[in-house]
Amino acid sequence: MRRHKISFSFMIISTAIFFSLIVACFIIASSVNVDDEFNRIKEYSSSSEIFNFAEKCKSHISNKLDLAYFIMGVEGLSTMTAIHSFSAVVLTLLWAFIIPIFGIIFGVSALQQIILIFIEKIRREYEYRNMYITVKILLIVFISLFSLFALIGIITTSIIENSLNSVDSDMKNYLTFLNGNSSHHIFSYLTAYKYFIDGGINEIMKNGFENSNINNPGDLHNNLVGASAIISAVIMPLLFAIILLILPIFLASIISNRDNSSSRFSNWLHNLRIDSKKEYWSNLIKNPWFWIAFIVFVVSIIFPGFIHPYKNQTQIFITIFAALILPLGFIPLIIAYMKIVKIRVFNYNKTMFNQIIIFNIAIIFIQLNYWILFREEMTYPVWVSLTWPFISIFLSLISLVGFTRTKK
């Protein structure tokens, strides 16, 4: 592992964070009481509808971790903090949001290190090339399938969400009492139905909302609801899991050092040294991948960071948070320019790689946090809250891959 100090160190850090979060989660869970949290929901509104909704949902929640999924799925972050105890909020954020993200990071980085051991034992170049091409094709195929089903899922869930928001149903009233707005996200509806009806998500996949005993669920074809639930709860998670299994193989093949030599990626990363402002600006202006990442980053800051309703303190906080992220995204470029001013040589490829990586991290961070934690506060339709994050993250990753393919 000495030849891969950065990736190995990253794996160790991600492992430590992941398991520390799990330990912290179970410690916090010991102080959470399911009955108390549902009593808080009942006390939040004096409505008898909320009382009945809470009682019905509580009967389908078997443990504290299930409670975390329920809270995350039904409530926006501002509602969550207003209703529940501090321990319940932290448990929800850890178990239903933060731990899954770090679990993916840990899993990919750990699997990558294991696969590196086997790839670096390959001695024949043609065997390595065949493996690399096969993995690359598989990755493209499954990403394409994931994108296709994502598109189908966005279309079907948009139809369902529009129908549910256009009628005065009991479930819509439940969510309105909780979140304070009259338009709700499809996943808030699906989570509410999942815990409200007998049979949960399996019942929805089989019969839609037919046996939900909810007044006026909207003019929906149950087959459409079932198909959408299958795509969202089965097909897309399965395709995503396959992509996560293929991705570390692809990454390992890129950074592998076979025959005790430096990897092509490492050689490229340390190529092209710059020591003048003219070279700096010339290479920056001519780099299309930087500009793609830059534009997506800025647009992500503006939308949804600045363009959203301003009706409560949480929505104002979203804007302040976006404004703080903006200057932090340009740290590598600022450091590089300071080196030039002081007449110091710096590595262009490495600096630009770090810059695009930071753009990618910021874009993914913004999109996941805003559209998951604040989806109820945003009040945008599902096609916006799914399509824009998908496009922005996809373009940012394309900019990273495109730049690493640049031959300089």
TrEMBL record:
Protein name listed in UniProt:
Motility-associated protein Scm1
The protein's organism comes out as Spiroplasma helicoides
Sequence intervals crossing the membrane: 6-32, 67-87, 93-119, 131-160, 229-255, 289-310, 316-340, 352-374, 380-403
Keyword annotations: Membrane, Transmembrane, Transmembrane helix
